[in-house]
Amino acid sequence: MGTSVTDEQIKQEVRKRYGQWAGRFGEPMAQPANTAYAAQQGTIIPLADSVPSNACCAPGDRPVGEGCCSGESGQGRIADLLYSSHELAVLPESVTGAAAGCGNPTAIAELRPGETVLDLGSGGGIDCFLAARQVGPHGQVIGLDMTPEMVKLARRNAKKLALSNVDFRWGEIEEIPLPDDSVDVVISNCVINLSPDKDAVFAETYRVLRPGGRLAVSDMVLEGDLPPTIRARMDSWAACISGALEKQTYLDKIREAGFADIEVASVDYVPLCVPDWESGTDKTSDSGIDQRSLARMVASIKVKARKPA
Q1: Which residues of the chain have pLDDT under 50?
Q2: What global pTM score does this model have?
Q3: Across the chain, where does the E strand assignment appear?
Q4: Domain 7-24+56-306 belongs in CATH node 3.40.50.150
Q5: For residue 23, which of 91, 82, 94 has the smallest C-alpha distance?
């Protein structure tokens, strides 16, 4: 990353981009009477017009140049690529349309009834709501996000779903506002790569987990080195590219924080969403690397780990 880009500039850019995205879903959808779940009354939940060009891409091996983060590609919502139709059926558009991840951490978290779950970078709340169904009424899910607009959106979504076991809080994942040994599972969906201090994130995650607690994340990593010109681009930070670490470095940081039993559950290459490349050409403006080669460097991974008992 260029020395001209500071940690605070990165955070401000991410807040701005995701705050704008949350704003698209600021008005509550009309819901059928006497139910928070439209799909349970046979209502068809409409697809979003598009997915954000500044959000993380979904995994897959589609050809570069399709415009993975554009509704014009015909791919529809990011959520449709990451979650099952059964998972999405009971969630309103303000949840599914606002999803901007690169995986489905609840699919690998092995959540159990009664557990307490923390979601780092909870956004509009989709992973929190899926986790809430798995831990049940005697469990608890805490969503943490540094973008005020996202926290407000998630809280509105929780009211729509009438969920009393989900709590959304404002805060930064480098300084988690929870006590030591207070949660059973930490999940995250394409957010840790956005942090300029990943060592602090993994150290804080380890701190708040109870002994024997589990980590289950989807995130973006690299297989190779990004050109410095791409690292320095603020839009590439918000698009989950510039902040991505080399895969082994990412796993080493989890290990150095104290975690054990680290397992990579899956690796999927992803198309890219750098605005200059949405035309589908194979040339970049200033990076010295062609678009197709860069696409084979960026991957979405699912990782599980455990805090020793």
Answers
A1: 1-3, 28-55, 57-75, 273-285
A2: 0.80
A3: 116-120, 140-145, 166-170, 183-189, 209-222, 245-246, 260-269, 298-306
A4: yes
A5: 94
